Amino acid sequence: MAASGSRRHLSVVPDQPVIDRPSQRSGRLDVVSYQLRIELDDVSPTIWRQFVVPSNLRLNQLHPVLQTVMGWYDSHLHAWVGGEPPASERYEMQESIDEGFADDDDELCEDDIRLDQVLVQPGDQLSYTYDFGDGWNHTIVLEQIRAGDPEPKTQCLAGARACPPENSGGPGGYADLLGVLADPSHPEHNDASAWVGSGFSPESFDPAVVDASLGGHEAVRAHGPVPDSAFAELLRHMPPRAAPQVYSMLERAHLTQRSGDYLGAQEAVTLHLRWFLQRIGPDGITLTKAGHLPPAVVAETRELPGFDGWPSTNNRENDQRPVHLLHVYTKTLGLARKYKGKLVQTKLGAEFAGNARGMWSHLLTRLPLGADRVEREAGYLVLLALAAGASPKERQSVVAEGLAALGWRASDKTVVEGLEAYWIARPTIEFLMLTGAIGEGYGVHDTSDPEWGRLLARMVLSV
Questions:
Q1: What residues does the Plasmid pRiA4b Orf3-like domain cover (predicted)?
Q2: What pLDDT was estimated at residue 173?
């Protein structure tokens, strides 16, 4: 044993340093206003924005805000990097993770990360990349924590210079484009000018215009549908700046409201279908050689509410549009089918013939109707306008604006407007007219919508 005077000096060996990764932080307990500055990297003169958001936004909720304040059109993938090495982390879209585009070792989903987990104190930074092909990198800085704001909300304060056009080739390509646009003698000047459009001015930026568009994000936060609903997903593909009237409907639609006369709504909206299924009965209805309902059944059906006002002098199904639609929709909804010359109930039809509640639940999952995606998306817009109590004229403009914002165009590349756009939603519109869920209908002259129709629309938009 060594003498005490020669004993070696001992010390505590420290453990490996604990790295405080952004995603491991709990975030704030209170919700405050974060004043942020975003700057587009590698572009000169600088393109920047100053704006305010609630501190508790998740990154997938911050993404559309950034798209709006910058002026992008959300046409490409994006990702984030938070923190400084070695504690930096990458946050991916759920879509990128599902499709295998993300790094297997770094698959943190943006949906699970709150802004106040990655930006904690003034000076903290967050990187945001949009369009991996062009490589538009942005730096976001937390400038100020405004704890005294009475109600944190999204707001654009200032900024400079227009957002580059989509697909302009990243910072280098955009610099080349600006050079071509500035030189009328350049051989590509006319083509470049036509491509960017007459409204493009690289020096222009109006925070008031952006602020008005941000109102759409506030409307979604305060009055939007259930986050994982099909309609919420549709809204995510519709930039607020391109559809201000659509987003203005959200507050009027009361999509977060779940009160109402459900029993009355269930009875009213399913009345015609249940009557018809009961009339079909277990034995079915023998159809004509042309596959239509026999005149005696057509005559009975005309006694239903709203059907007696259809002008006709005979009881042929082809001459009675509401009766024909009732026949068609019963089959479309999987409640009846043609079998050996008869119209017979399906298993679902037999179950719902005397069950308004079951039929109601079935309709919530099947609406809006349409064989094509554009018909169903137009149907969602009609239902939003119905839930909001919009006038028939407003309905037309809401559908036209929404379809244009979603990118739908006619074969000649023009935007479809007015009544033509509205009737793209014909499968849903005619079903609502058939049941009396909207004021404009067969034999109905009152243009006011029944409250149960608005309740139906709210519930469909929440599924």
A1: 34-207
A2: 97
